Amino acid sequence: AKLYRIDGWGAPYFCVNAAGDISVRPHGDATLPHQEIDLMKVVKKASGPKSAGGLGLRLPLLVRFPDVLKHRLESLQQAFDVAIRSNGYGSRYQGVYPVKCNQDRYLVEDIMEFGAPFDFGLEAGSKAELLLAMTCLTRARPEAFLICNGYKDEEYITLALIARSMDLNTVIVLEQEEELDTVVETSERLGVRPVIGLRAKLRTKHSGHFGSTSGEKGKFGLSTAQILSVAQKLQRLEMLDCLQLLHFHIGSQIPSTALLSDGVGEAANIYCELARLGALMRVIDIGGGLGIDYDGSRSGGSDMSVGYGLDEYANAVVRAVMLACDRKHVGHPIICSESGRALVSHQSVLIFEAVSSTTTKSEASPSIWPNHSCLLDELADDAHSDYHNLIAATLRRENETSVQYAEKLKQKCVDHFKDGILGLEHLAAVDVVCDLVSKEFDVADPVKTYHVNLSLFTSIPDFWAIGQLFPIVPIHRLDQRPVVKGILSDLTCDSDGKVDRFIGGQSSLPLHELERGGGAGGYYLGMFLGGAYQEALGGLHNLFGTPSVVRVSQADGPRCFAVTLAVPGASCTDVLRAMQHEPEVMFETLKQRAECAGGDAVSCALALAHSFDTMPYLVSEANGGYSVVSGGDEE
Ligand code: PLP
């Protein structure tokens, strides 16, 4: 557990159990070991054959834990409730979930259910998200907020006003000054009085990657002058009572409570000024940004970690709002937050399998040895003298000199090979000698490449796009010391499809040897804390589709769990159709071609039909090994 910092990023939900597997504590309670769910057992259940009581799903597998989600939501609410009580704050906390973070239907429905006692609402940033949010909120109490953010055209605003007319507590948050005219005109046309919010462009700047859109020159929101102009315009229209909410979002993963207090304080002052100008202010919406500790360091020094927990976050917000309002004698507003990452990151684990491993250093091939010294004797003069110097330095045990000669020799021979004056066997013999020298002096531990049954672009897009690191850990064999340093290479034909940076600044991951050398599977890894944004961003790169999904809840009985939903991943047919291909026509074309070619047309057709129906990741072969179903060139 220490090696992978599980106690740092995983607490209180993930731990290593006595069997050496990762267990999930669905209610975040370490004192209830009988409620722990062994991830390996979930994998066995989900991927085992149906004939043996399994669900027959293929990996990669996304395991969702709604109990964890419930615990996150309740912990967030509780953190604010405690901060409000202990500071004597005069209003309440009422959060919303920004659906952009993960639009999965069951996840959003779970949030609605778990958040119902607290009037938890939803935030939408597009028309499709608004439709989704409206539908889900029809089952919530009328106080739950429906916050409409994002760029808005007339259609979006019409939809938001319809939501208001349906008694959903809808707030149209202006991101641009021009949106006001459309809101005013559309509300007059529909005869619906809007509730309006303003998104303020704060001066407070979050300097991390996620803060690039914050600050005075940020992409979103209204400047001070624009805020004033909107307020004056609403006053002229006798609509200042419609202005009730002030919103800001300084970026995701806010690194420290100092920066948070600064931003909230600035926004709270704008809130108070709007109240002074006559707006009927009721709500301060502090946006998202509540961070999580991806690397378990709690350092707050990078995008990978934040230096605070839920309680400190809530306390800093409540105090900053209170300070500004008390100074200006303005009533305490409802505090709304749009926490996405902090709410949904922990609730799912992506499990994938290492199917083979290769060492990045070439192994000395015994077949070269019988004549390698003859080959080396045939090197050109300059290379030959380097070779002799290398041997002499090695015999004298001069590590550094040997390594230098090895590098020199290698480079020279590569040049000779490119010039066409060195044969392939000679170059291979040089590689072997140089590798032996570096092994002898243990210059660099060989790093193995583990091929994992996954598309990085589909399942961990932020790693590739913005360098975001997620904890990746074997989910079993943690009672054995990992002896290999490994990097992960996915199954796409893209050179970027590899994970070679890990939390804690490591360039390799401690891994176990695969049990049956090359080819066979059985070594499972989990990618944790990826419940936010990764599913929403992942595309169909290389036409690898979505993973299989299971929802796993804690059940009665010691360490028992129930799989309450099992969804197979997208088939080849599904992903092809998503790109406007017509799998039925493709099948017919290929079938006819097989018939014309005169082979065994019936078995060809059966194999084709099977392929269209399987997941685009891997197909099991009769011998229990795997083969990759993909093609194409490296990008
Ligand atoms: N609200 C707005 C307006 C956002 O742009 C975002 C994400 O960038 C969020 C909320 C969610 O932020 P987070 O996931 O950091 O909580």
TrEMBL record:
E.C. number(s) listed in UniProt: 4.1.1.19
Entry-annotated residues carrying N6-(pyridoxal phosphate)lysine: 100
Single GO biological process annotation from the record: response to cold
One matching Pfam family: Orn_Arg_deC_N
Active-site annotation: 493
CDD domains given in the database record: PLPDE_III_ADC
SUPFAM superfamilies hit by this protein: Alanine racemase C-terminal domain-like (SSF50621), PLP-binding barrel (SSF51419)
Reaction equation(s) it catalyzes: L-arginine + H(+) = agmatine + CO2
Residues annotated as domain Orn/DAP/Arg decarboxylase 2 N-terminal: 90-345
Listed cofactors: Mg(2+); pyridoxal 5'-phosphate
Annotated keywords: Decarboxylase, Lyase, Magnesium, Pyridoxal phosphate, Spermidine biosynthesis
Organism domain of life: Eukaryota
Enzyme class, broadest EC rank: lyase
GO molecular function: arginine decarboxylase activity
Pathway assigned in UniProt: Amine and polyamine biosynthesis; agmatine biosynthesis; agmatine from L-arginine: step 1/1
NCBIfam families: PRK05354.1, speA
Family assignment from sequence similarity: Belongs to the Orn/Lys/Arg decarboxylase class-II family. SpeA subfamily.
Protein name as it appears in the record: Arginine decarboxylase
Organism, as annotated: Musa balbisiana
